[in-house]
Design goal:
Elements (H helix, E strand, L loop, with lengths): L10 E5 L8 E6 L4 E7 L4 E7 L8 E5 L2 H18 L1
Antiparallel strand pairs: 1-2, 2-3, 3-4, 4-5
Length: 85
């Protein structure tokens, strides 16, 4: 689903995008403790950026309901993390 997004230097560590009806869908781990996480939460997708496993205080959180918008948000968040490193 996100095959055309270049996550480098991040590494895709979880990918079950074929099952978009479950909470945990996709995750990319970056150096310096950053994680980009995508999940489905009953009515909407959430894309969050986490630093040093602090899930209570995400650096960024974006939400949407449409797949085309989800793709754009994942790309935006990936670019954001790359610019932090």
């Amino acid at each position: 689903m996100f095959d055309n997004i270049d996550f480098s230097p991040g590494v895709v560590t979880y990918n079950v995008t074929q099952y978009l009806d479950q909470e945990d869908i996709f995750q990319v781990t970056f150096y310096e403790g950053y994680v980009l996480d995508v999940g489905w939460y009953r009515k909407e997708f959430a894309v969050v950026i986490i630093k040093d496993s602090d899930w209570e205080n995400p650096l960024m959180e974006k939400r949407c309901v449409k797949l085309d918008e989800l793709h754009r948000l994942v790309w935006e968040c990936s670019e954001y993390v790359k610019n932090l490193e």
